[in-house]
Write a structure and sequence with these properties.
19 strands; alpha+beta; six-stranded mixed β-sheet
């Protein structure tokens, strides 16, 4: 990057706006594991719209004509249904209707800033200040992108509250505005619970996640009237004949899953993931060796972030309405500590970017304050995320994501030690 550009220069604005966007989009993180390569800014400048591959769980779209508060529309054309017309029978009047569902993703401006402080201004060059500010704001923006995507996919914020969470709790007055689009609970046909429980309200101490749960859930998803599309990653030659989904589990779920799995089955699951990784797949989703594969599901740790409900927390669920298909929210109380895993296929989440003040997806601004004694730096993005949901064959359906709730006490607690058999 340029080294001697004065504070407030239009050139710095351009360089750091594009640079920040590029770094966030290519940095390792939850959102970038689940999406294809983002087209370069130049290709968007030449066109008005572009998107990443629809074969990945997160589909990113960019439309430079959009401003704050605008929406980007996503359409899904339903499968054609009807009998074949045979022989010389006239086909007139036998046409199959082309039907579709659509949803809108709202976008809005998101900003974060940092103040260099007076003393640092005297000791650092403008170039170093920018690099320090860039690093901090990049990490902050990446956490926001990852966390907002996770919350939308899971359909809840949960109760985990560590210092690296950018998205506040749902009770926060600004939660709805920060999430931009409504956070909706998983649809009834995409919600599962470990063992024989049916909701957070009846999860018991024997309802920790097991490989048998994954077998059962995969069978139900495959038999579902509304199939969840598989992930097709570039270079995965087995994607068509051996389709996969990806499942992200919390650290606690991973711990209890491993402790309740025989060594023979665990070794096989590790081997399954290793073989798929070495079948020509070159994508960050397969980079980690801390992955297993079972029943066509690549299972990965969610690392730091967890959608977690403490005992007696309120959890919103979809009851299915009077017809069992229409989305209808109800609130239940978690009977035990519960963690939520997510299973993703293709087109689970839409991430839309629009035009910022800099004519790029991200904006960078800087100015001297306090009579030149300090420098403030602000980054901004114009975008919004939403879980892709359509009404398919009369059923409100999360198109590319399902969730699994399971018993997951703190491993340091007496309940956790009991579950681990120690």
């Amino acid at each position: 990057m340029a080294t001697n550009i004065p504070i407030g220069s239009p050139l710095a604005k351009k360089i750091y706006s594009v640079g920040l966007f590029t770094r966030v989009q290519h940095a390792p993180g939850f959102m970038n594991l689940l999406s294809g390569e983002m087209p370069k800014e130049g290709s968007f400048a030449a066109k008005t719209k572009g998107q990443t591959s629809p074969d990945y769980p997160i589909v990113k779209t960019g439309d430079l004509s959009k401003g704050a508060g605008d929406t980007v529309s996503v359409d899904l054309f339903n499968v054609l249904q009807g009998k074949p017309v045979m022989g010389d029978k006239r086909i007139a009047g036998r046409m199959m209707p082309l039907t579709y569902s659509s949803m809108d993703i709202r976008i809005n401006q998101v900003r974060g800033g940092t103040d260099s402080g007076g003393r640092m201004t005297q000791k650092r060059t403008v170039h170093n200040l920018r690099n320090i500010g860039m690093a901090g704001l990049q990490a902050w923006m990446q956490r926001f992108e990852d966390q907002s995507a996770l919350v939308h996919l899971a359909g809840a914020r949960g109760s985990q509250l560590t210092t690296d969470w950018v998205v506040p709790m749902e009770a926060d007055a600004d939660f709805g505005e920060i999430m931009i689009n409504p956070v909706k609970a998983p649809t009834k046909n995409r919600y599962f619970v470990a063992n024989d429980a049916t909701s957070p309200a009846d999860i018991g101490t024997n309802d920790a996640l097991t490989l048998q749960d994954i077998d059962r859930i995969v069978a139900q998803l495959r038999e579902s009237p509304v199939a969840m599309q598989s992930i097709k990653i570039k270079g995965d030659e087995r994607a068509w004949n051996d389709p996969i989904w990806a499942m992200f589990v919390t650290e606690r779920q991973w711990l209890y899953l491993q402790s309740r799995t025989s060594q023979k089955d665990w070794r096989q699951a590790v081997q399954n993931a290793f073989e798929r990784k070495n079948a020509g797949v070159k994508h960050p989703l397969f980079d980690s060796y801390e992955s297993i594969m079972w029943s066509g599901v690549l299972i990965k740790r969610m690392n730091r972030y967890a959608i977690r409900f403490n005992k007696d927390d309120n959890v919103i669920v979809d009851t299915g309405g009077a017809d069992g298909k229409t989305y209808a929210e109800s609130t239940v109380q978690a009977a035990q500590p519960v963690d939520r895993a997510i299973i993703v296929g293709a087109q689970a989440l839409g991430k839309a970017y629009g035009k910022s003040a800099s004519d790029y997806f991200y904006d960078w601004s800087e100015e001297e304050v306090d009579h030149g004694n300090a420098v403030e730096m602000v980054c901004a993005s114009m975008g919004g995320a939403a879980k892709i949901r359509f009404n398919i064959d009369g059923a409100d359906t999360d198109f590319g994501v399902a969730v699994v709730d399971s018993y997951a006490p703190d491993p340091a607690s007496a309940a956790g030690r009991t579950l681990l058999g120690s």
